[in-house]
Amino acid sequence: MPGRLLFTGKVIDVKRDVSKRGYTVGRCLLAPLSDDDLGTGESTEAQHLVIPFQNEFLYAAYTDSEAKEETQVICTVPDLISVLGEDGEAVGSQELRYGLKVTVTGMPAHPLWTGDVRGLKVGGPEYFGLDMKWTSIGKYEKPRSVIEEFR
């Protein structure tokens, strides 16, 4: 499983600050796209998604509309969480803003990060001060070489 779609929605809240160590820290809250956004009369998701960040996205969790009660953590570091804009370009935490329509994807971390305790200790939830276990979205698969693919 090289990657997985986690959520499609719209940014409805962003809180950010700069830590004493110089990191941009905060969180964003995504709402499912409304009928008007979709133009289909249907909603794609039943829940909201919260993504805390410290320069990078730390985890993704389903939550209520005010991000007060997280119901399910679906992915944590060291797995890679990417936020993509409507044009498919990556959106960094500094670029998040109200109303931005995004797609959130997750990719499993390389085994060097997850194969033993040492990798998780320096790149997992505990390192970032999160009181949660690592939650992966799947098993890492080595990508195909571009050279081999287009030889």
Write the layout of secondary structure elements.
Layout: E1 4-18, E2 24-32, H1 35-38, E3 48-54, E4 56-57, E5 59-63, E6 70-76, E7 80-84, E8 101-107, H2 111-114, H3 117-123, H4 146-149
Antiparallel strand pairs: 1-2, 1-8, 2-3, 3-4, 3-5, 5-6, 7-8
Describe the overall structure.
With 151 residues, the chain is mainly β. The protein is built from four helices and eight strands, in the order ββαββββββααα. The chain has helices at residues 35-38, 111-114, 117-123, 146-149, and strands at residues 4-18, 24-32, 48-54, 56-57, 59-63, 70-76, 80-84, 101-107. Strands 1, 2, 3, 4, 5, 6, 7 and 8 form an eight-stranded antiparallel sheet that branches. A hairpin with a 5-residue loop joins strand 1 (4-18) and strand 2 (24-32). It is globular. The model has no long low-confidence stretch (mean pLDDT 89).
Q: Which consecutive residue ranges, at least 5 long each, have pLDDT under 50? A: none
How many distinct beta strands? Answer: 8
Number of helices in the DSSP assignment: 4
**Secondary-structure-derived class:** mainly beta
Q: H/E series, N to C?
A: EEHEEEEEEHHH
Q: Please give the radius of gyration in angstroms.
A: 16 Å
Characterize the overall form: globular
Mean pLDDT: 89
Termini, distance in Å?
A: 24 Å
Q: In a nutshell, what does this entry contain?
A:
The chain is mostly beta strands and 151 residues long.
